[in-house]
Specification:
MobA-like_NTP_Trfase; 23% strand; single chain; seven-stranded mixed β-sheet; alpha/beta; Nucleotide-diphossugar_trans; 7 helices; two-stranded antiparallel ribbon
Length: 199
């Protein structure tokens, strides 16, 4: 692994309040004998990310108290209720100055995405100008990798629940798609019915 690859940091967005789940924060949902936030952080680590930053919001103090997140940098997003865009901005701000050349972004509520998909996207990193996205049957999904050269532009356009969508659309020609449909499922845990996906 080259020095540059070593500098792809994992960025886990885990601040949501689970509004459609009766106000249960997704980070605290049980999964595989632990918490969903623990599982997702381990996926980033197992996928080869150099360090993992976890953005917390809803019931952040409870997540800090209950979740075992060794070696992770925990980032508080006091504006989490305004949407995922604020969490993305908080995470990228926290990564600035760490030496990271890219951020590999995973959402806490997609447990069908494992280390194999993370590793594929990470391996597509070439330089701080890289823009890489997992694809499922050719359709862009998560995880996504943002080279550091794009962070300011992404932060400037990340609003509400749209995250980096506007930026990626604007730079669609530069986004490298990495097919992951054979190793991952990109469903979200959004509603009570989705809880059936948790183990």
């Amino acid at each position: 692994m080259t020095d540059d690859e070593n500098r792809v940091a994992g960025l886990l967005l885990a601040a949501g309040g689970g509004r459609r789940l009766g106000g249960r924060p997704k980070a605290l949902l049980p999964h595989r004998g632990g918490l969903l936030v623990e599982h997702a952080a381990e996926v980033l680590r197992a996928g080869g990310c150099a360090g993992v930053h976890v953005v917390l919001g809803a019931r952040a103090e409870e997540v800090r108290a209950r979740a075992a997140l060794p070696g992770c940098v925990l980032v508080d997003n006091p504006e989490w209720e305004q949407g995922m865009g604020t969490s993305l901005r908080a995470g990228l701000d926290a990564l600035a100055g760490t030496g990271a050349r890219a951020a590999l972004v995973l959402l806490v509520d997609q447990p069908g995405i494992g280390p194999e998909a993370v590793a594929r996207v990470r391996r597509a990193y070439r330089s701080p100008r890289s823009l890489v996205s997992a694809a499922y049957d050719g359709v862009r999904g998560h995880p996504v990798l943002f080279g550091a050269a794009h962070w300011a532009g992404i932060a400037a356009t990340a609003t509400g629940d749209r995250g980096a969508r506007a930026y990626l659309k604007e730079h669609a020609d530069a986004v490298e798609l990495v097919e992951c449909g054979d190793v991952a499922e990109a469903y979200d845990i959004d509603t009570e019915a989705d809880l059936a996906h948790l183990e």
